[in-house]
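Re: export button greyed out
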Amino acid sequence: VYLIRAFRLTQGDVSIAMPGSVQRLVAFLALQRRPVPRQQVAETLWAEGTIDQSSACLRSTLWRLGSRGVPLVRTRARHLALADHVTVDVHDLEQVAHRLISGADHDPGELDYADLMDDVLPDWRDDWLLVERERFRQLRMHALEALSVRLAHAGRLAQAIDASLAVVCHEPLRESAQRALIGAHILEGNLQEAVRQYRTFRDLLSSELGIGPSPLMVELVRSLNVQ
Amino acid sequence: VTDHPERRAGIMLVRVWLEAPAPKGLRARLIGISDLSLERETSAASSVDEVCDQVRAWLEAFVAGR
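Workaround output, generated via the alternate export path:
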């Protein structure tokens, strides 16, 4: 099950099309990571109807899934969960992110981190997805920041800038990412870009929060003689 | 949604992180969606009081239908 960028389901190399209601059920269970009571699934995914209507929608969706012969969901007593053999891209990427943050991977350049740049199901507007999408977003921002610092230390400055830029574009007030980006520009010898980035950040901090950069940032740019 | 005021709904997301030891290093990004069909409004804060003030202002605007 792929949830990053867009919903996609594959078995081997073959893509499997599913109705929207099945996609939502599978995505919800994939992001819960544990068995969920049927009633909670129904009330979350079909929140606008009565309890009876929600339960009927869930039964209909499970029937649609079952009729396609793809054993994606495990039903046990009053709970539903994703079947044990199903793999989910978000789960795999979370492991990558935790390894990056903990420093467990020795060669960051070998990592395929492109998926860290994208959100979980960005075009879906479901309420239940907001918290999971945001939780994953925060995790990947931390991971990209850690990656940027390690890429810079490894001399892979263009990649380091890409990673920190992804964080800064998402949240320009994040100073640790701004430091990683400015530090990479300095290491690259691109001092004008470092100064420009610093001034942009300093002005943003002042206008949005009425505060100045931290001593760590001031120390980083001290050699640039920025006014 | 707007034809049925009783069905109006909104979401406010408060994203927080620390740039330095708390409380001085607190940063917050507030993302409010007052009507689920409209664009989001964002703001930022750097203290607990500021976050609470902004949440209150957003809620008051939502209740008032602004």
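Residues 127-153 of chain A form the longest helix (27 residues). The button fix ships in the next patch.
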